[in-house]
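Q: What structure does this chain adopt?
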Amino acid sequence: GTLGTGISAQVEAVMGSSPSSPMSTMASLLDEVSQTSQELINVFSSYKDQTKLPPRKVVHQKSGSGSQKRPPMDNSPTPPIIESTNGKNSNSSSELLVSLDAMPWLVDHQFFHQAPGWSDASDAFPVVPMTNIIKIFGEKAQEAVPGKFVTGWKSMRAYRWTSAVPAKSIPILASITSPNEVKLSLEGYAKGIVEISDTYPIPPTPSLGDLVSPKPSPQNAKELYSERWMFHGPKYQGVKEIGLIGSNGIEAVITRQSGPGSLLDAAGQLVGYWIEVMESVNQMALPSTIGSISVFGPEPEIGEELRCSLRVTELEIDHVTADIEIIKDNKVWCLIKDWVDHRFTSNPDLFFNFLYPEDHFVSKVIDGDFSIVHEIWRDSATRELVMRNHTCANERMEYEDKNPKAQRQWLLGRVVAKEAVRTVVSKQIGRDIYPAEIEISHLETGAPYVKSAIPEAESLSISIAHKDELDVAIVDDKIPVGIDIEEFVAHGERFGSAILNESELKFVDSADPNVSLTQLWSVKEAAAKCEGTGFEGKPKSFEVLAKSGDKFLVGKHWIKTKLIENNERRYVVSWTINK
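A:
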């Protein structure tokens, strides 16, 4: 419950609510105290929730336990860190500068593919890898306790993506909690505990056990990157060989590249790749937490190749958990326990849309005339990925100004409209078009239009409509267009007389009037959109003059209709045609 809710209201109810009264002042103070107490309770509760790891479900029993001490620093370049101190030996703070200037290697760690030479870096979304943050945490722990080796990390958690565009300065807090542990926080983005020691622990023998039902990998290491199964550029392309893949894991050879944290990142890439090839839904996965990382010696040099064994210990619809051994000279150099990737909601269409946004669409073209998309990204995390994959900077600003409900419909409209435009224009200019190359904006009337550096795109007329989890769009390079979508529902007795003239009643099917009324309303909407005005409160002014099969003549516009079903619900789509 909420601590102290309504204290001031209770006091005022008894003593009166005059602003100048002593009791009113006391009531306000009591409210401030209760709010502060509640905030502290919320923070503590949030901290407890954030430190919980998912329950383990063993997929394949492992033999032997091995040692669980923890990994090392890599000597790759690090971004500028502005130092400060609070005057106590056990605590320190600094500022991490996150930008492409401070971290130029992030051009090889960008989530979203863009057209060659694309100038707006924010559209590609360069993000600091979780393993880069792990490296920074290790360095800060060594600064807090000089002369010690970093032997591991534990309870690593990323709250949100640390994007380098726009540039930002983020506080790093370090606290020595014991002679061998330093707690680190990249405020608002990540946290974890670094383990330090005078010496490295003795490396254990590999013990993760055998693969179950092993088979060759569908892709080799080169194809992992060239075919975009991984989005990483050269500084983070650390997977050198992919061996056998089984129902419980994968064998590979990895190497450290010049990107900070690239060796551990390569190990993590194998978790994502295993999901991509072994599952048919929710194939998009990115790191969220790591239980522990133990290291047993100095970090390998750049280019040194090491064996990597991964075993999946838990597989759920929304996450996958794995243990990983990185092996050097037949001994474990690094042991990772409980590496967790979050699985984003997706079907194969959406997954390949992330890999190839320029030519793999999530919408479908119907009857060669209009495009339709069905929202499958119901959770907010997946929705953000979809939004970033389909928008340019101006559109993201518009999206962020909306409430969550409005964001859903806005995003559906942008996805289907851009894909409808790109379907037409890519054929005209003979090349694939990326989503950020097209911007959908609106006139003061609400009518959409296309903005783009591609002249063929700007010359198109466009219309968009949505209903529930469906959005439709139509474009044309010769005539104005209009489209509408409506769900078949029961209408009240006065609905027909409100939208139809006396002469239009003959188009109502007495056997199923609700279907007819929904169709008639929809074709009128499509005609009004084609005019660029909308109904303006006068649906009768758009008169249905004739009907021929599934086509209606509304004023001067021929409108075609199509009945569709989605999730056991029935809809009608109506759109203008050039008859």
